[in-house]
Specification:
four-stranded mixed beta sheet; Rossmann fold; 6 helices; six-stranded parallel beta sheet; 213 residues; alpha/beta
């Protein structure tokens, strides 16, 4: 018997005495909590996102859609990146001006190969203003989860205001729980018992977020 079968067996036994006409879970649990804290305009929501992203030590940039290719090229050049990992559904014009070797998102890529990549550029599924969190769901412009965990430098493009919500409950309403969700609040970091902060332990050391209007 596999671990999966054992777990499902325990769930079935736990539910054995639940009547078939019992109240469905989505109605049994009241969800009358606040959907967001306060009322904000779309512009105020984007400003709050930028503020909280910066508070988590992400580097935030703002630009118009037509300025994005040049901005991405500048960010890559300033970092000295010679290779960039590109998800298959990333809009080609985003990186048209980037002077770096394109590395495809391949299922067979090893952690060692991904570690040699200088930068990765992705889109996102949704961004949460109140928590300064970006959520990836493995969509075509985001690629496999590991491509945003192994390389040391991640540039994430957020379309505003369309991809920005105020709160976590609003974000959950947009996300499919069956997809591989990665929640990112700033660059990867941890602290030891002396509270010495170390970045880049289990994810990118540098997170740059581009808010594209």
């Amino acid at each position: 018997m596999s671990s999966r079968e054992r777990i499902l067996g325990r769930v079935r036994r736990a539910l054995a005495d639940v009547p078939r006409d019992d109240t469905p879970y989505e109605r049994a649990v009241p969800r009358d909590y606040l959907r967001e804290h306060g009322e904000r305009s779309a512009e105020e929501t984007v400003e709050l996102l930028a503020e909280n992203l910066a508070d988590y030590r992400a580097i935030v940039h703002r630009c118009a859609d037509g300025e994005l290719p040049k901005l991405l090229a500048r960010l890559m050049a300033e970092r000295g990146s010679r290779s960039v990992l590109v998800p298959p559904g990333l809009p080609p014009h985003w990186i048209a001006a980037v002077d770096a070797t394109r590395v495809p998102d391949r299922a067979g890529s090893t952690p060692h190969e991904l570690d040699r990549v200088d930068s990765v550029i992705t889109g996102c599924a949704v961004a949460i203003a109140e928590t300064g969190t970006i959520v990836l769901d493995g969509g075509p412009d985001q690629g496999r989860r590991r491509i945003t965990l192994v390389p040391d430098h991640h540039i994430c493009v957020v379309r505003v205001p369309g991809q920005v919500v105020s709160s976590v409950p609003q974000a959950l309403g947009r996300l499919d729980p069956a997809r591989p969700l990665t929640w990112i609040s700033g660059p990867s970091a941890t602290s030891d018992i002396e509270l010495d902060r170390v970045e880049g332990v289990h994810g990118p050391r540098t997170l740059e977020v581009v808010l594209v209007d």
